[in-house]
Amino acid sequence: MKTIGINHVALVARDMKETVRFYTEVLQMPLTKTVELPGGGQHFFFDCGGGSAIAFFWWKDAPPAAPGIASVRKFPSDDKTAVGSMNHMAFHMAEDELEASIARLKEHGVEVIPVVVNHDDSERTVSAEMHDGVFIRSVYFTDPNGIMMEFAANTKVLGPEDVRHEPATLDAG
Predict the structure, then answer these.
(1) Keyword Iron on this protein (predicted)?
(2) Domains assigned to the chain
(3) Buried/exposed 81-97: b ≥16 CB within 10 Å, e otherwise
(4) Residues 99, 116: contact at Cβ < 8 Å?
(5) Which of 96, 81, 92 is nearest to 54 (CA)?
(6) Residue 84: CB partners within 8 Å, gap ≥ 6?
(7) What is the mean pLDDT of each run of 10 residues along the chain (173 residues)?
(8) DSSP code at position 64
(9) pTM of the predicted structure, to 2 decimals
(10) Angle, alpha carbons 138-140-146 (nearest 5°)
(11) CA torsion through residues 150, 2, 4, 46, sign
């Protein structure tokens, strides 16, 4: 079996009109498909580049948001989420676009983690400084639904030498 990428990720919107405005106007992702669901509800798709889409369901009677369970409560201080939940969505972006993306988000009143985060292999996993060991630079923010988003710029090509850890398990044996 061989996949060729992600077709779409489907999330749930609190308010579809607000979600459409955010994704089309702020993030400039074209709305490409809308579906009215039987029995009420909607399913809308946005082009997020590279042949991939981000989609949202909306139901009038959807359960309320569950920060700290199904979504991040507050990044970076309280970013654990439940098994099977989505922690955050990361979109590819060119490194030279990161600063402009921060300015655009702030221009539209979006709360942004105030700095570009340099992910590295140090004990803290992040660095205040850019250096040769940084593999991704990121900007974090949330959408109107409380979903944590990331613009991520790869700074190097990852290879087999970057897989250095055994997977953890809860099993004792």
Answers:
(1) no
(2) 1-63 (3.10.180.10), 72-157 (3.30.720.110)
(3) beeeeebbeebebeeee
(4) yes
(5) 92
(6) none
(7) 93 97 98 96 96 96 89 78 88 93 94 87 90 94 93 94 88 67
(8) P
(9) 0.88
(10) 155
(11) negative
